[in-house]
Each structure stands twice: as structure tokens, then as C-alpha cells.
């Protein structure tokens, strides 16, 4: 029990760092927010995770993003979906805890997997899952109906579990497309940054660095080969831009 409480406390400490940096970690790429900014922010999260013994020493910043945060988020959303489909807190392992509360708070304004799904601040049951059935009383009708055809009682329509999952599935698709677009933009941003470094090195007469060596070799290659490489790079860049 003590070990479990320690793990929960460490997770909460790491989530506080993610919450503080969520604008950088989850914001859309822009002139003021680059892929490098995101990488540096995740590196800070990883350092905190290592200090809390949540990540091994050899792990890179992508582990904090794709393993720690992604796994915790998926588990929390699974608990939330279980509560929505069953109308209860679920069984063992499906009950919301303090870690889930913080994760939902982080996702509240940053992810379309939460936006628009009527999550209340207390993280209770969403409004559209709470059914209200008014009590009926037998009232004598002063004017009996002359119709011999009985009026059927109103049918109770229940929301099927499949209809509850459809919006969630669509929002997951949107999230996936957004991430793919950010990755493409990140590659273009990195390529642009590399070219700027090459230009500065050549203007200052510096030798090629490890970061720019491959591109400098292409530039220094014979004209025919250099032209073919440029055409190939242009095709790649144009293809990426068209996909965006």
C-alpha cells in the first residue's frame, strides 16, 4: 500500500509539471511555438520523471511523451468511457482516482478528446447520461374520453453504447490527424532550421558540423549530382506541403 501511495504521489508531481507546460506541450505549431520548443519542454518533463524514478536513465524525451503521458491518458479516458457506458464508477481498476482527476483537468482545454463531451468540473456523470423519470399520479379525468382506442404509453428511448462510442471515435480520428500534421510541420521546421545553419556556416567560412554535414556534402558534390539531389529534395518538400 505504501508503495502504491508513493507511485501516485510521484505521478501527481510529474503531472503538475505537464500541467504548467501544457500550452507548449500540446499547443499548435506557430511562429511563436516551434517543434524545438515542444521538444525542450518534453525534455524538462523527462528530467522530472527520472528524478521521481518514473523513467530509466537511458530514456529520451519521446518516452515521456509517447509512453508515460500517452499511457496515463489512455487509461484515464478508458475509465471515463466505462463510467459513461455503465452509469457507474466501474469495477476494480476502473474507479477514478486523484491522478485521473489531474489528467482530465489537463485535457479539458487542450485536447478534442475531451472538448464538447460535457465533462463537468467534478468529473461526475455527464448531463446527457442522467435520466429523469417524473413520478406519475392517477388523476380522475372529469371528462372521460369517448375514444375506444387506447393511447400507448410513451416509449423510453435508451442511448445505445455504440452511439456513445461514435463521437469518441470521431474525436480520436481528429486528434490523430492533428498529431500527424504537427509531425509534418515539425519536419519542415527542422529542415528549414538546418538550411539556416548551413547558410551561416558557409557565410562564416566554418567547416561542416555533424548537424549539417550531410547537406554540405550535397552542396559540395559535382553539379550533375547536386542538381539531382536538389530535384529529389524539392519533390519531397512539395509532396509534404501538398499533403498539408
Average pLDDT for all residues: 75
Parts with pLDDT < 50 across at least 5 consecutive residues: 115-142
> What count of helical segments does DSSP give?
8
Characterize the largest beta sheet: strand count, sense, and whether it forms a barrel.
none
Q: Please count the beta strands (DSSP E, at least 2 residues each).
A: 0
The structural class is mainly alpha
Instruction: Report Rg.
Output: 28 Å
End-to-end distance: 50 Å
Helix coverage percent of residues?
55-70%
What does this molecule look like?
61% of the residues lie in helices and 0% in strands. Among the domains are: 1-109, no CATH class; 168-220, no CATH class. It is elongated and about 90 Å long. The longest helix has 44 residues, at 161-204. The relative contact order is 0.08. The chain is mostly helical. It has helices at residues 2-20, 22-26, 35-51, 61-86, 98-107, 161-204, 213-220, 223-243. Mean pLDDT is 75; it is low at 115-142. Helix 3 (35-51) packs across helix 4 (61-86).
List keywords for this structure.
single chain, 244 residues, mainly alpha
In short:
The chain contains 8 helices and no strands. The chain has 244 residues and is mainly alpha-helical.
How would the blueprint of this fold be written?
Elements: H1 2-20, H2 22-26, H3 35-51, H4 61-86, H5 98-107, H6 161-204, H7 213-220, H8 223-243
Helix pairs in contact: 1-3, 1-5, 3-4, 4-5
Amino acid at each position: 500500500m505504501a508503495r502504491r501511495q508513493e507511485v501516485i504521489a510521484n505521478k501527481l508531481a510529474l503531472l503538475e509539471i505537464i500541467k504548467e507546460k501544457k500550452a507548449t506541450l500540446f499547443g499548435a505549431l506557430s511562429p511563436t511555438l516551434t517543434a524545438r520548443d515542444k521538444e525542450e519542454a518534453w525534455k524538462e518533463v523527462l528530467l522530472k520523471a527520472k528524478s521521481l524514478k518514473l523513467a530509466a536513465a537511458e530514456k529520451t524525451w519521446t518516452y515521456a511523451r509517447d509512453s508515460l503521458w500517452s499511457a496515463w491518458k489512455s487509461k484515464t479516458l478508458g475509465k471515463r468511457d466505462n463510467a459513461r457506458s455503465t452509469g457507474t464508477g466501474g469495477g476494480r481498476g476502473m474507479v477514478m482516482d486523484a491522478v485521473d482527476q489531474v489528467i482530465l483537468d489537463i485535457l479539458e482545454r487542450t485536447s478534442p478528446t475531451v472538448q464538447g463531451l460535457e465533462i463537468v468540473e467534478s468529473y461526475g456523470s455527464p448531463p446527457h447520461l442522467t435520466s429523469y423519470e417524473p413520478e406519475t399520479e392517477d388523476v380522475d379525468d372529469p371528462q372521460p374520453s369517448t375514444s375506444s382506442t387506447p393511447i400507448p404509453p410513451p416509449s423510453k428511448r435508451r442511448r445505445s453504447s455504440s452511439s456513445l462510442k461514435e463521437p469518441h471515435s470521431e474525436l480520436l480520428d481528429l486528434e490523430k490527424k492533428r498529431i500527424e500534421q504537427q509531425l509534418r510541420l515539425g519536419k519542415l521546421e527542422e529542415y528549414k532550421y538546418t538550411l539556416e545553419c548551413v547558410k551561416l556556416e558557409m557565410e562564416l567560412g566554418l567547416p561542416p558540423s555533424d548537424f549539417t554535414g550531410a547537406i554540405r556534402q550535397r552542396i559540395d558534390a559535382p553539379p550533375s549530382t547536386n542538381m539531382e539531389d536538389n530535384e529529389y529534395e524539392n519533390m519531397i518538400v512539395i509532396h509534404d506541403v501538398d499533403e498539408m
